[in-house]
Amino acid sequence: xxxxxxxxxxxxxxxxxxxxxxxxxxxxxxxxxxxxxxxxxxxxxxxxxxxxxxxxxxxxxxxxxxxxxxxxxxxxxxxxxxxxxxxxxxxxxxxxxxxxxxxxxxxxxxxxxxxxxxxxxxxxxxxxxxxxxxxxxxxxxxxxxxxxxxxxxxxxxxxxxxxxxxxxxxxxxxxxxxxxxxxxxxxxxxxxxxxxxxxxxxxxxxxxxxxxxxxxxxxxxxxxxxxxxxxxxxxxxx
Length: 238
What we know:
The chain is an alpha/beta fold. The chain is built from nine helices and ten strands.
């Protein structure tokens, strides 16, 4: 896993990370997710890859917590939607974090709207079970796809991630600003958190904070990086 920090917009302090899959292949070199994730999904290998990735990510967070005495740090992992159709998902995840010794509140699970469109009873049960254990649920890429408002009161979602397509140069587009403000106000009224994705300049970071968005991530703050590079910033107290 590579890790991209998620920062609190009020002071730009790192509060957690999104874990992102990267593959360094001996023959092909650096392989990006867009090259191997679709094939992994098509073949079904994504199911085992996700759990391996989740374990590695949680293990790294646990190491940082112990090394830096930062028990507040959390990691967010995005799971393929089919995981939520399995009744064993909550137990599978708890088994992983119990083995590592990571507290449930230091793990967050991202899912996309695709998981909410079918088999809703088992998806809802799994989400409720994860949340009851203390694991927070994030809805990724909110504002794209169907973005049905019925999701927000039916499913136990803790955080909305505002899609980067609205964030990119939002300070130059009034219609993007209107959408962002609507999402932030909606989340606030429903007592949900908000993360702005793809923040690439100071103007957009300032705009998000002014609109009441709590957290942000993007190249303006930090690029995704391997753990050994990121620890330097953590040791500085970032």
